[in-house]
Amino acid sequence: MNNPISILGFAGSLRKDSYNKALLRAALELLPKGSRLEIFDLEGIPPFNQDLEANMPPIVKEFKAKIRAADAILIATPEYNYSIPGVLKNAIDWASRPHGDNVFEGKPVAVMSASIGMLGGARAQYHLRQSFVYLNMYPVNRPEVIVTFAPQKFDEKGKFTDEIGRKLIRELLENLIKWTLKLKKD
Ligand SMILES: Cc1cc2nc3c(=O)[nH]c(=O)nc-3n(C[C@H](O)[C@H](O)[C@H](O)COP(=O)(O)O)c2cc1C
Fold it and tell me: What's the gap in Å between 148 CA and the centre of ligand 1?
């Protein structure tokens, strides 16, 4: 067997009981054979300051190194005020800098979102996809994993229990891996 496809996952929420963090844990359970997933917590990443680009904080260096080493990226994000949370945008901004050292360059990426509302964070996903254009990332388009009315779909231990949703996460991961292998061939 070749080297497994390595995926780095992070959530756009710092909340301990975050539904989006729980989606990443579900992804860990649903990982296809031949892949591995490491989850990085964005807690502790300071606000972006361009003055620090030449000597980035250690946690940002660590985040960038993990992205660089990963074959693919998986992001689970809430929607805040119809967009992505500042915490997520901030982390992405750090990892895209300094100019010429955007570690997301050319990486395949898959997105999931969960929200307590009826649109499941869909609007945040499209804002995030807009950033992928400038970052030059390659997003998986299907399936769209959009978890609506989240409180009904996780049990008291934070396990994602929605059967259709779990099937979609599995399919998303399979597509991310296929996509990654295709891009690696070039
Ligand atoms: C600052 C803020 C803004 C929010 N804006 C939205 C929104 O625009 N759309 C939405 O569906 N939910 C919104 N919510 C509710 C989130 O869906 C909910 O808090 C969700 O649990 C956050 O994800 P998490 O569980 O991963 O932390 C907002 C929550 C916060 C704290």
Answer: 11
User: In this predicted model, what pLDDT tens digit does every residue of 32-91 receive, in sequence order?
Assistant: 999 999 999 999 999 999 999 999 999 999 999 999 999 999 999 999 999 999 999 999
Please tell me the distance from the alpha carbon of residue 16 to that of residue 185, in angstroms, as a whole number.
39
Mutation to probe ligand 1, out of 17, 19, 20, 115 (largest number of atoms < 8 A from CB): 115
Q: Is 154 in the pocket of ligand 1 (CB under 6 A)?
A: no
pTM over 0.85: yes
- The per-residue pLDDT for range 93-147, each reduced to its tens digit, is 999 999 999 999 999 999 999 999 999 999 999 999 999 999 999 999 999 999 9
